[in-house]
From TrEMBL:
Residues 1-25 form the signal peptide. This is Uncharacterized protein. It holds the Pfam family Peptidase_S28. Belongs to the peptidase S28 family. Keywords: Glycoprotein, Hydrolase, Protease, Signal. One of its GO terms (molecular function) is dipeptidyl-peptidase activity.
Amino acid sequence: MRFATFLRLLAFGLALSLCANDIQGAALSNIDLRSDKAYWFDQPVDHFGKSPSIWKQQYLVNATFYRPGGPIYITTPGENPASNSYTDQTHFTQLAKSTGGLLVNIEHRFFGKSNPMTNLSGSSLRFLTIENVLEDFAAFTRAAKYHPSSVFPTPVSSNSKIIFGGGSYAGNIAAWMRAKYPDLVLGAWASSAIVYARLLYYQFDLSFGRHLEALGCAKQFSQAVQQADVVLLSGNVSALADLQSQFGLPTGLSARDTAGLLAFLSTAYSMQAVSKTIDRVDQGVCAFFRDSSSTTPLQSYAASVKAVIESNRMTLDYLAQTGNSSYGIDDYTLGQIGRVWYYMECTWFGNWQVAPPPNTGLTGYRSQLVDQSYFEPNCKKKFGDNIPTPVNVQKYNDKWVRPLERSSNIYYTSGSLDIWQDATVATSSGNLISSTSKSPIVLIEGATHVQDLRTDRPDDLDSVIKARQIGDALVAKWLK
């Protein structure tokens, strides 16, 4: 199941292929400053003594704007591979330019080419803990701060001021790094950071519904989902095959897997940035419900899903693999972003993207078949019987959200149309932690996911520009 990860990749549209001309770390003084060069930092498999082995963590550097004494901006792509898009094409690039800073993008363990183990079995992934992840970044940050010649291809001042930044899950990392290592990290910009865990994250659909309501097609979309559910819940094999054909989906998937695939495809544009001129949810979803040639909500729904499939050049084989909840259960090979993320969901924060339970009376925008039993059983199938279910989200929140309440110099942002808003500190019902002058929380009106940290564009929403200005002023204050 790679739905959440695919949405993030689709939202950012990043070029994730890495330069093949990697280097192995030594003789840094002879290396040019191209930001697509890969460097490697030695890390222990386990920072707490359970494995003595060493692995190499990949990072990229952009020193184009660096001036002696300037700050170091560290980001991680989170669950994505490292890319010079993160050092060259984000708002942090503008910050580095204006402050004479150096940019670093460093991979997260088990993603991209940064693999502590030779496979992704459950026994290997036991080393994927938040504690190990943060110690990875702390070890690199210490080297960057106190021994910069060991990690950078250009002379960098010792004891530089370090700002950590990131969006979505990478925003979690930024906030945690400031909270846990205030002696290393001066401040953090945490955009759409999904720090709060919910076992059943039906708020995902409620946020999507708010976007559809703003565009005027929420009612028709919900009706279409209900019409599809009549078939999906019927047990009629022939009718299921007809429905799959109508939506351009591969036949042979179960009703439950078809329901999950439809939910994935229909929200594919929900994390795309909204600008003054473009709203991809409007173009890719609501526009089809305004098409007079479609006579029923179900037909409009099918047309919109087909358009997603065609525009993203998804093959039937790809769709069959993506929709099949059992696909890859026994495949432990490296490079499977979805498998690693699934492990984190099973063991860290749940956030299963489900339809609202019937007893809530809330409007649904996905099939009732997409519930907890759709996601959770695969935890043990994928990673072994020792994985406890359900995941203890209360324990997670107590350990990783509460420390944020006491931390200063963290800038939190979230969009009012962000499907992950209710997993951030700026939920739709109010802030989870106090917003202070030292750690402000800004809700960006009309924005979706991580809009403020994307590269600056002329057609950006005024609310996004304002959020950036607030963040820039905070960074300037921290650096003083």
